[in-house]
């Protein structure tokens, strides 16, 4: 789990390699949990939502995590022997999200990307 999360941060701008299922799912789960905890703590500390200076910091952190998540999605697609452009399937309402989830759950294949 820790190794997968470290690889997530070490490969934040790597769009050309592959990522195993664990290297995709652990960072997604950990980032989601950390995001919920962070929002809860900020709401508890300030008594309201994220505003002003905290808001700017939250946008910067969210952009960095978005970039890392985008790269791990592309690498995961490479691991199942699909082009990174398959990420666009998630823009198809409802069905695209389900199909992308299925793609992320598929086992690894011998990849032409490595």
TrEMBL record:
Pfam families assigned to the protein according to its UniProt record, in alphabetical order: DUF805
Keyword Transmembrane: yes
GO cellular component: plasma membrane
Ranges in a coiled coil: none
Segments crossing the lipid bilayer: 24-43, 50-72, 84-106
Entry keyword Nucleotide-binding: no
Keywords tagged on the record: Membrane, Transmembrane, Transmembrane helix
Name this protein carries in UniProt: Inner membrane protein yhaI
Organism expressing this protein natively: Pediococcus claussenii (strain ATCC BAA-344 / DSM 14800 / JCM 18046 / KCTC 3811 / LMG 21948 / P06)
């Amino acid at each position: 789990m820790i190794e997968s999360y470290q690889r997530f941060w070490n490969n934040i701008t790597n769009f050309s390699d592959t990522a195993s299922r664990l290297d995709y799912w652990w960072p997604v789960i950990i980032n989601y949990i950390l995001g919920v905890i962070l929002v809860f703590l900020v709401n508890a500390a300030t008594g309201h939502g994220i505003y002003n200076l905290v808001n700017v910091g939250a946008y910067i952190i969210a952009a960095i995590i978005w970039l890392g998540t985008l790269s791990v999605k592309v690498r995961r697609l490479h691991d199942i022997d699909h082009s990174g452009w398959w990420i666009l399937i998630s823009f198809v309402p409802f069905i695209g999200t389900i199909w992308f989830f299925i793609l992320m759950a598929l086992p690894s294949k011998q990849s032409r990307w490595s």
